[in-house]
Fold:
Amino acid sequence: MSIMLVMMLMVLLTFIGTAVDLGQLYNRRTDLQNLADSAALAAATRLNGTSAGIASAVAAAAAVAASMKYQYGRSIVWDNAAIRFSTSPGIPGTPDANWLDVGGASVAGVATNLMYVRVDTGALDPALGLVTLPFIRALNLQVNGAALDSFSIGSSAVAGRSAIPVTPLGVCALDPDVLNPVKQRTSGALVEAVQWGFRRGINYNLLNLSPAGTAPLNFLVDPINDPATANFAIADVAPFVCSGTMPMTSLPNAVRVQFPFPAALIDQLNSRFDAYTAASAPCDPVGAPPDTNVKEHLSTTAVAPAGQTAAGTSLSGKLLTVADPAAPPAATTAPSYGVLWSYAMAAQWVAGSPASYPNLAKTNWSTLYPVSSGAGPATGTYPATNTPYHAPGSSYKLAPSHPGVAKRRVLNLPLLACPDPVGGNYSTATVLAIGQFFMSAKASVAATRISGEFAGILALPIGTTVRLYR
Structure:
């Protein structure tokens, strides 16, 4: 009986010991995968197409490694050999020749399209992946003639861009002057910066503009940009209008477009106002969350505007607004300018190419926005400081019923050197810049209106959504 008990205890201890050793392997594998995932994600968020971005990515990965521990408190020593960069996420087993080390990726001009990171813990200190197996060693197991007393493991991860925050609504640049995209506009003693023909703080109807004639020009941009096929079906494009993203790593210089922007996609923009209806399908609060402020900014001027957007005019054979010509068209009054400065103030011109332009004061409205009769625009209930979107109080703010994301009402839109419209078919257009337009009010299918207050030009490179690929 005692012999049987001893034998049973030995078998039981063997199972327990083996379980302990296998548990160590599992825990170490988890630690290494967490390290690889976290380092790859941190590095990928820093990539911006420059050598400085490569350096920042390496530093971010090293910082993650320094913050983590393994084997109950042991520190991790980073080695740049563990990180590599590529132009695509690749597939498992991709040759190292397609992945550049830090030195190769840092060469001037090479980093432009390197938007993916691979972190391999196998290139770090071998001790990091070495797990001793004392209980299994006691069993005197052998593999290929060698005692199985330890095991080396490693983990890798690939992270990179998955989408850019650009809505697939193409708007014509009102002044497509590539050599001089920022013009000076003089109003009395004030000098305003006008970017690609747009004035900051002016509400434009994005569906009623054209620099090339008196008929509106607007386009649906192919959000997938697959060279093999066009992707303009409403069901295919609607999710990207909802989310305000396009599933690509960067916006190409030339995009495929279809004229005009479909009326069936206008309601999807209103998800930013917490509006989820059958007309706005398939938008939902998870994939297309509302803004943190869903208050429509309808009027803060002393005299109510004639419309949400600046009134249109077809002077000089172009479809513009009364705010765009050098002098106000006949019959321009204060209400003709629409809702002013709901998100952005007019920009003061300064020499050079600043990252941002200073704001002009609201006391300058009557000078900036002249009229042909009557008094010029006055601020009325405009907040004392800041713009209505950013101001506190129920007069300017309304919280959504679903969790919101700040500035979701700012649409990042491709500014195009507009091609000739081809109804029902697609053509190719050149992207000049990414314009930012704030939705001061809900878009309207009935009024054929998307109210977009110009808020400036999005700095390049464009920030992106980053995710793990493997």
